[in-house]
Write a structure and sequence with these properties.
Helix content: 40-55%
Bound molecules: glutamine, zinc ion
CATH class of one domain: Alpha Beta
Number of strands: 22
Low-confidence stretches: none
Structural class: alpha/beta
Distance between the termini: 80 Å
Strand order of the largest sheet: 1-7-9-10-11-12-13
Radius of gyration: 26 Å
Strand content: 5-15%
Length: 765
């Protein structure tokens, strides 16, 4: 019988149970025993559901309290001294690395966080310090294997591979390269293999997603040398080399000649993998794990296409050596459609979340076992559903399509040039040197969340809800004036999430009630589903921003989410191109920009927090497959505003050294971005490229509860002044304040404003 496998399962809980207990633990409400017990319960549920659905190769060690990459650092003892010194136990050390730690004696920042390849999941970036002593430092992988075994489930433990680990870690030791740690790190993996053998583990899955990206000749050699050393130590354990998010064109030949027992390829995002198999063949002594069920999107699998793909694969690989797999971990999709009662059945049948994807795997197995799958009932049903999606005209907007077709080249160009319009903006805005601002949201306190829940449940009327939100806006405007910020925001209290909110107010989107996906640590997002054409039917934010502006003399920023971020943080439809979807959203947001301007709003921020996210993993695909239309979409949104209107944008985790020209070409007047965590290294890039517009490098990290000191911010500003033209610098935190408490936010912002004032005096006397 054909075997079924799953790369990884979501771990946060169908009702975000893990988030709740972990946050409770952070706040001191939940004792550690309860935290551990809840985690154990969740692991059990997740293993059991996979077992019930007939999955043969179920993963273990895909669980994590925060992040599995961070767990790997702990496992390998790659724990920087500053965290070790605190003397916490392993779990608390893990949390300190993830979130920073502050008490009377210790004050350490969190490790950096980065986007996990082209997903909205973030991993914690380990640091490899001088004198690091790699050794086996955690028994998590074995414990979870045994825990499952006690439930009668023999799992395949999952490990991040040594190549990906070293490539993604930050090497802190001067003069060292990742490969210098090869021997040391392999000793730990050998040690792990020994124990897995003692435990009689049958399969281990080693994730090496880094090899779907561009590799140098040296990388390829290093990879090969690593596994030539490691694989002879595997004993009786069968090693699955797991890759995902693309194809392995640079290293396919080497991979199939290494002594792996199985190679797992992504046949959804890495369709080219099939060509590689055809061209170079696939060795008869290995298993092929065929990643056919999309772990990143929520549409039902298209059985016809999948079966056709499989028929091609079977030309080169014996059918009994093929294992049906997910394309990547199911971490990137929500748990289940069960309980989604608000989505009409006709839409719901188009969707498959993690649990439904398990069913798809077993149905595909059934089709494979049948002589003629074309007559199988499940196959026929699937074909019908797929056809209905294509022919559905409910969300087909002719007017939107016409407007998009009529876009001309000049619609992507804002006039006059930045140098000219910034002067007009300065005359009108009259901002001080080093203007201070925030990124948009203020803490979403439990009061705000309760309010929204009450409204959603019908406990309060729309009028009451709006009134209360207005009260919150008034408070936050007063607060910002008291703190002394220069450019104010309305706080985003009416928004649950910066993307979901716009989705809810645009036609073409579907929403789930519980479609949560982990973004980082305990943070989850509920991506809307782009089901059909996108269209703005009425103004969305204008009333709120107008109200906020009516309360103060200072400028209030209009606050919008940009088209690429809305696209990247939604589940996109697959029947039209991403470019077409992006242009439709851009048109909707452009209409909102124009309405805000007409309402007298002088500064409009269009967040592109996720611009980089869907950047293709291979450089050769960047322009044609993405950047060209992504940047155009943004330019289209603001190209029609008056010169006096100042356009801001904001980006998170801005690793944008390599796309700096494109960022500049977005032609926003001001950009704010994350900088505090990544050692301000982006400043050098801005300097080198002579970046023309104004910039607000985040001066403190809002992802951590720690309060930055005034002195610390002053120092950062001084550093910034050495690298950039200080006349073009804004002072702001590195992201929205939504996830923080007021108790942290107010002193942090006060310190920020005071620091800016000190530096102003220094420069201008
Ligand atoms: N304006 C948004 C906020 O402040 C931006 C959030 C983000 O970049 N992720 O919440
Ligand atoms: Zn941000």
């Amino acid at each position: 019988m054909v075997a079924l496998s799953v790369v990884g399962y979501p771990r946060i809980g169908a009702r975000r149970e893990l988030k709740k207990v972990v946050e409770g633990y952070f706040k001191g409400h939940v004792p550690k025993e309860d935290l551990l017990a809840e985690a154990k319960k969740l692991r059990k549920i997740h293993w059991q559901v996979q077992k019930e659905k007939g999955i043969d190769l179920i993963s273990s060690n895909d669980f994590s309290f925060y992040d599995t990459f961070l767990d790997t650092a702990l496992m390998l003892n790659a724990v920087p001294n500053r965290y070790k010194e605190i003397g916490l136990d392993q779990l608390d050390t893990c949390f300190a690395m993830a979130r920073g730690y502050q008490d009377e004696k210790y004050d350490v920042k969190a490790l950096e966080m980065k986007k996990w390849f082209n997903t909205n999941y973030h991993y914690v970036v380990p640091e490899i310090e001088d004198g690091v002593e790699f050794k086996l430092n955690s028994s998590k992988v074995f414990d979870e294997y045994q825990e499952a075994l006690e439930l009668g489930i023999k799992t395949k433990p999952v490990l991040i591979g040594p190549f990906t680990f070293l490539k993604l870690a930050k090497i802190k030791a001067a003069g060292k390269k990742y490969f210098d740690y090869c021997d040391q790190i392999l000793r730990v993996y050998e040690h792990i293999f020994n124990i897995l053998n003692e435990l009689a583990v049958e399969f281990v899955q080693i994730d090496e997603p880094k090899i779907v990206m561009d590799l140098t000749g040296e990388d390829i050699n290093n990879f090969v040398r690593m596994y030539e050393k490691l694989l002879p130590q595997k004993g009786k354990v069968k090693v699955i080399l797991q890759t995902y998010f693309g194809d392995i064109r640079d290293i396919y030949k080497e991979i199939v000649s290494l002594n792996f027992d199985a190679v797992a390829l992504d046949l959804v995002e890495g369709e080219k993998n099939i060509e590689l198999i055809a061209q170079y063949g696939f060795p008869g002594d290995k298993l092929l794990f065929a990643g056919l069920i999309n772990g990143k999107n929520i549409w039902r699998n298209n059985y016809r296409q999948t079966m056709e793909k499989l028929q091609t694969v079977f030309k080169y690989v014996n059918k009994d050596r093929v294992v049906l797999n997910t394309s990547c971990s199911l971490l990137h999709v929500p748990y289940t459609l069960k309980g989604e009662v608000k989505i009409a059945e006709k839409y719901k049948q188009q969707l498959a979340f993690a649990e439904e994807k398990l069913t798809e795997l077993s149905e595909l197995r059934e089709l494979l076992q049948e002589g003629n799958y074309l007559v199988n009932k499940k196959f026929i049903k699937n074909a019908q559903i797929k056809k209905e999606k294509i022919t559905n005209k409910e969300f087909y907007f002719e007017d939107v399509r016409t407007k998009i077709n009529n876009i001309k080249d000049e619609d992507f160009i804002r006039k006059p040039s930045f140098d000219e319009r910034i002067k007009k903006q300065q005359e009108i805005l009259k901002l001080p040197f080093l203007p201070t601002t925030t990124i948009g949201s203020f803490p979403q306190t439990s009061e705000v969340r309760k309010l929204r829940r009450a409204y959603k449940k019908g406990e309060i009327t729309l009028t009451e809800y709006r009134q209360k939100i207005k009260e919150k806006i008034r408070e936050v405007i007063e607060l910002q004036e008291e703190i002394g910020l220069d450019v104010l925001v309305h706080g985003e209290f009416e928004r649950n999430d910066m993307v979901e909110y716009f989705g809810e107010n645009l036609a073409g989107f579907l929403f789930t009630e519980n479609g949560w996906v982990q973004s980082y640590g305990t943070r989850c997002v509920k991506p809307p589903i782009i089901f059909g054409d996108v269209k703005r039917e009425k103004p969305i934010t204008v009333e709120w921003i107008k109200y906020a502006q009516s309360l103060t003399e200072k400028p209030v920023k209009g606050m919008l989410t940009g088209p690429i971020t809305i696209l990247n943080w939604s589940f996109p439809r697959e029947d039209i191109s991403l470019k077409e979807i992006a242009f439709q959203i851009a048109l909707a947001i452009k209409e909102e920009v124009m309405d805000l301007e007409a309402a007298g709003i002088k500064i409009i921020q269009i967040d592109e927090a996720a611009l980089r996210e869907k950047l293709p993993l291979r450089k050769e695909d960047w322009q044609k497959d993405y950047l060209d239309w992504a940047i155009k979409s943004f330019r289209f949104v603001h190209s029609s505003v008056k010169p006096e209107t100042q356009i801001h944008t904001h980006m998170c985790y801005s690793e944008f050294a390599d796309i700096i020209k494109e960022i500049e070409a977005m032609d926003a007047d001001v950009i704010s971005f994350e900088a505090a965590k990544s050692d301000l290294s982006l400043l050098d890039t801005l300097k080198e490229h002579n970046y023309s517009q104004e910039v607000g490098p985040g001066v403190y990290d809002i992802h951590s509860p720690r309060i930055p000191k005034e002195k610390e911010i002053e120092e950062i500003l001084l550093k910034i002044s050495q690298k950039l033209d200080i006349n073009k610098v804004w002072v702001n935190p590195d992201c929205g304040l939504k996830t923080r408490d007021m108790a942290e936010t107010v002193p942090s912002l006060k310190n920020m404003v005071n620091a800016a004032q000190k530096i102003r005096l220094k420069f201008k006397g």
